[in-house]
Amino acid sequence: MAVPKYFEFFEGFLHALEDGALHSAKEVREIIAANMNISDADRAEMLPSGKQSTFNNRVGWARVYLDKAGLIETPQRGKYRITEQGKKALASGKTIDLEYLEKSDTFRSFVSIKEKETKSRTEEKNESPTEILEATYQEITDTLAGQIMDEIMKLSSSGFENLVVKMLLGMGYGSGIEGAGSVTKQTNDGGIDGIIKEDQLGFSNIYIQAKQWAPDQTVSRPEIQKFVGALTGQQAQKGLFITTARFSDGAIQYADTLLGVKVVLIDGEKLTKLMIKHNIGVSVEHTYEIKRIDSDFFADEL
């Protein structure tokens, strides 16, 4: 038999977790393969890139969609568990497909099924293969950004602060300087959560404020004003206010009009984009080369 489509694994994934226990991705795949009679040959089938099996890829996407619909959860890194909504879905006797998942508000905010279906019917006529590839790449990147934010929100406050410092170092700040980045002690930190040294002697430092707030919360102007006060106390001129939430218009306007001190604001969306761009907390799964004809080569007689 052919490897089922990713949405055809929804029910199989939930059944693999129906005992209510935590299961690793490998355990889930083994249970699904046994329950759905997926042969070793089918499991060995590879994607066109040759970098990952079709089975693993589709089960992985099934997990993403079920998680966004609230039917499963990841209480520990790499460990999955069915939720009460997931148990109700199985008990309902209804087919668990994309239409079923669309009943979830969180899933609808993650992806619009109707728009995807409309696009699939028209993209051959209206979009070039390159445009389709770009759109697919963006969808995968957006999904990854959501997964990154889910993992960030599971970190402790000190873990988040360490992540921010690691990201800045990964971006090249403090390059070649021993002990370039550090997290301040949580007690009496004076409103400063971390410091990045920009030169060997410490003449120029970047002072960091890291706020691990819910992504739907808003950081307003008073929070930035407090941070500026903390910078003044350090006689600092460069500050980075980074949060998993978003900034109000007032906060952004205030930061843009400061004199004598530069404060850069990074919200949750930009944070995940920077992590993806600089390979912080992510790894490259596939690399595709898009080639075009070399007209100059064929212009000369061979």
Overall SS class: alpha/beta
The CATH class of the largest domain turns out to be Mainly Alpha
Helix content percent band: 40-55%
Please compute the radius of gyration using only Cα atoms: 24 Å
- Give the strand line-up of the largest sheet: 4-5-6-8-10
Strand-residue fraction? 5-15%
Count of DSSP strands: 10
Tags for this entry?
302 residues; Trna Endonuclease, Chain: A, domain 1; five-stranded mixed sheet; three-stranded antiparallel sheet; 14 helices; 48% helix
Brief synopsis:
This protein has 302 residues and is α/β, with parallel strands linked by helices.
Description:
With 302 residues, this protein is of the alpha/beta class. Helix content is 48%, strand content 13%. The chain is built from 14 helices and ten strands. A five-stranded mixed sheet has the order 4-5-6-8-10, sandwiched between helices. Strands 1-3-2 form a three-stranded antiparallel sheet. Strand 5 (194-197) and strand 6 form a beta hairpin. Helix 11 runs parallel beside helix 12 (249-256). The longest helix is centred in the middle third of the chain and has 24 residues, at 129-152.
Helix and strand topology:
Layout: H1 10-16, E1 23-24, H2 25-35, H3 40-44, H4 54-68, E2 72-76, E3 79-82, H5 84-92, H6 98-101, H7 105-110, H8 113-126, H9 129-152, H10 157-170, E4 181-183, E5 194-197, E6 205-211, E7 218-219, H11 221-233, E8 238-243, E9 246-247, H12 249-256, E10 262-266, H13 268-277, H14 295-299
Parallel strand pairs: 6-8, 7-9, 8-10
Antiparallel strand pairs: 1-3, 2-3, 4-5, 5-6
